[in-house]
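Box 4.2: Ligand-aware structure prediction
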Amino acid sequence: MTTAKHPRVFSGIQPTGGLHLGNLLGAVKGWVSQLDHTDTIICIVDLHALTVARDPTETRLNRLGLAAALIAAGVDPDRCILFMQSAVPEHAQLGWIMQCNASFGELSRMTQFKEKRERVDFISSGLFLYPALQAADILLYDTDEVPVGDDQRQHVELCRDLAIRFNNRYGRTFVVPRHVIAPVGARVMDLANPTNKMSKSLDGPGTIWLSDPVASIEKKFKRAVTDSLDSVTYDREGQPGVANLLDILSACTGTPPADLARSYDQYGALKLDCAAAVIELVEPIRQRSLSLLQDPAELDRILNTGANRAKEIASKVLARAQTHIGILERS
Ligand code: TYM
C-alpha cells in the first residue's frame, strides 16, 4: 500500500479540444495549488476520448495541445507525474478486470452516460463501460484523493464501491480513494445557458476556452445571460446566470460569492470585473501554452518520462490485483 509521506493524488482529463474555464476552476487550479503537499499524478485520458469517434488528426493535435495547456496552467512535470493514459497499457488491463467487477445495473445508473447517450448517433459500448476504466485509472496508483469537479462525483463513488467489492471478494488489494471537490468553481455553468454546466461538447458562445483571445473572452462575458430582476444577489436557483458570474469571480479572486454580491448593483459592472479577472488568470496560460507548443519534441520527452514513472507504480498494483484474482502466479 502507499508508503508516501504525502497523500497520493490522482486525477484525469480528456483530450477533447483543449481546456475550458470549468476544467481550470473545477479541477486544474486545485491540482496545482496542492503540488507541494501531495504526491500528484495527472493523466491525459486519451483512451477515454475514444468513446466517441474522432478524426485522428484532431486526436493527435488535442493530445499535445492539452499537455501544453496543463503545463502552462502550472501542472509542473518536475513536481508531479504527467503522462498519457495510452502509454501505460496497465490502464486497459486493469480496466477489463474492473468491467468484470462492475454490474450492468451500476453502469446503467451513471448520469453522464444517460446524458451523453442522448447527444451521440452511435452509442459505443466504450461510452457505457467508461466509468469502469476510470476506476482502474484511479486504483492503479494506490490513490488516496481524487480532486474533480462536481460532475465526476458519481464516477468516483462508483470507483470506491468497486474497490471495496474487489477487496471483499479477493482480499485487500486496492486503497479505497475519496473524492475532493473544490468549495467554489466545482460547477462552472455555461455563460449563454446558465442552467447547463460549461462543457466541451456544448462548445458555443457560453464556453470560455483557455485558448480564447482577450477580445473573445470580453465579448462572451458581455453577452452572458442574466435575468430581468435587476438586482445582484447570490441565489443559484432564482438567479442562475448572476450566481454563475459571482462563482467565477469568487474562484478567481478568493472572495466568497455572497460577499461579492454586496459590492454590485449592476450586471454590467459585474460582467466587466468577471471578464477582467478571468483574462488575468487565463491570458498568461494561453501565451505559455503557445510557446510550449513550439517544441513538440520536448513535450513528448516530458510525457515519456511521466509514463515511465507511472508505469513503475501501475505495474506493481496490476500484478497485485492479477495475483489476487488468480491469473498471475505468486512469485
Ligand atoms: P473531463 O475531461 O470532462 O474534465 C476534467 C475535469 O474538469 C472538471 N470539469 C468541471 N469542473 C467545474 N465546472 C465545469 N463546468 C466542469 N467541466 C469539467 C471535471 O469534473 C474533471 O475533474 N471522466 C473524467 C476524466 C477521468 C478521470 C479519471 C478523472 C478519467 N479517469 C480518473 C479523475 C480520475 C472526465 O471526463 O473529465
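In the box above, the bound molecule is tryptophanyl-5'AMP. The CA atoms of residues 83 and 303 lie 5 Å apart.
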